[in-house]
Write a sequence for this structure.
């Protein structure tokens, strides 16, 4: 497969994840797809509940699935919302992504129409506090 075809597969997978979101309160569905080592992929969607702050983000769900499967390195991550400009991760998720990524790891922001913006982790979270500060 060409890189372009592979990316279409990833964009389709993140769209499917977004379609599974449980977001009856915000009505803001989000999907996330992590590509980990050796091309393993892990999807997540946001899941809300009646106690609004207790919901969790799509990226958080994808990270949990990755770690549960025994992987700890994000090669790249796709995030999709319905926003035409593409999704952008919340502050908490930027830190969660940073934990398992390098400063140049691509964070690929998508709308249903496809990729809208490619940023690096350090562009989204400059001067980050990461695990290396604690080693
Ligand atoms: N949301 C995510 O899933 N990821 C983000 O990075 C931004 C926000 C969710 C949380 C909540 O369910 C809805 O979007 C509106 O904030």
């Amino acid at each position: 497969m060409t890189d372009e075809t592979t990316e279409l597969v990833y964009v389709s997978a993140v769209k499917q994840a977004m379609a599974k979101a449980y977001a009856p309160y915000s009505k803001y569905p989000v999907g996330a797809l992590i590509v980990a080592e050796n091309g393993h992929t892990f999807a997540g969607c946001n899941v809300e509940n009646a106690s609004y702050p207790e919901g969790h983000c799509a990226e958080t769900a994808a990270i949990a699935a990755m770690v549960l499967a025994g992987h700890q390195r994000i090669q790249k991550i796709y995030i999709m919302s319905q926003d035409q400009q593409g999704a952008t991760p919340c502050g908490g998720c930027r830190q969660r992504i940073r934990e398992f990524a390098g400063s140049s790891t691509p964070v690929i922001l998508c709308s249903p129409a496809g990729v809208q913006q490619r940023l690096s982790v350090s562009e989204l979270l400059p001067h980050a506090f990461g695990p290396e500060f604690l080693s």
User: Anything to note?
Assistant: The chain has one domain: 3-134. The first strand starts at residue 30 and ends at 36. The domain at 3-134 is CATH 3.40.140.10 (Cytidine Deaminase; domain 2). Helices lie at 3-19, 58-68, 91-99, 121-124.
